[in-house]
Amino acid sequence: MGCPVRPSCQDSLDAYRTPIFLLRASKAGLPTSPYIVSDNVKDIMFEADFPMVLFPLHPASNGAYKVVNSEGSLYRTVKSLGMNQKYPVCAENLFGRLISAKSLLGAVDDPLVTKVAARVYEEFRLPICRLYLQVLGEEAYLCSLSPVHPEELTQRELRVLRDRIEATGKHFG
Fold first, then answer.
1. In a designed cystine with 90, which of 6, 55, 126, 149 is the match (CB 3.0 to 4.6 A)?
2. Is this prediction's pTM over 0.85?
C-alpha cells in the first residue's frame, strides 16, 4: 500500500483504444490526426479522403492497420478489420508518411518523434509501447498506439531499459 502503480488501469485502457487515445492526446496538446470512428463505409467516405489508414477497434487487434486507396478496398478492409462489421474502425486521412516507433520510457531512436514520444509517456505512463505516427515535413502526428511484445525487444533495448530503471532507483517517476 502507498506505492502508486504506473501506468494506471485507466491509462492503459485509454491508450490501447485508438479513438480514446487520440482524444486524450489531443486534449493534452499532442499533435494527432483527424479521425472518424464507424462501421459504415459511406460515413467514412463522407468524412475522410483517399488514401486513408484504418485501425481496427476490436480487442484482439494488437497493432494491425491497413492503408486503403479506393472505395472497393475500403469496403473489404472495413469488413476484415471490423470482423464482418461487428466492430467499428478508426479511419484517418493519410496525409503524410506513416511510421511506427518503439517507445521505451518515452525515448525513441527517431529524433523527429522524440518530443511526441516523451509527451505520450508523460500522459499515459506506458513504459513500453509502439507509436504509429504520420510525418509531414518536420511534424509528427499521432495515429495510434499498440503494445510491444517481449520478443520484439532487442538486447540493446533491454540494456537501455535496465540502465534507465537502475538510474531512477527502480521508479519510473
1. 55
2. yes
Residues 6+ apart with CB under 8 A from 30: 116, 119, 120, 123, 142
* Cα–Cα distance measured from residue 106 to residue 76, given in angstroms and rounded to the nearest whole number: 36
Range 14-24 burial, b when 16+ CB lie within 10 A, else e: bbbbbbebbeb
Do 20 and 41 fall into the same domain?
A: no
For residue 157, being part of any structural domain is answered with: yes
Q: Are residues 64 and 108 in the same domain?
A: no
Residue 118 grid coordinates: 516523451
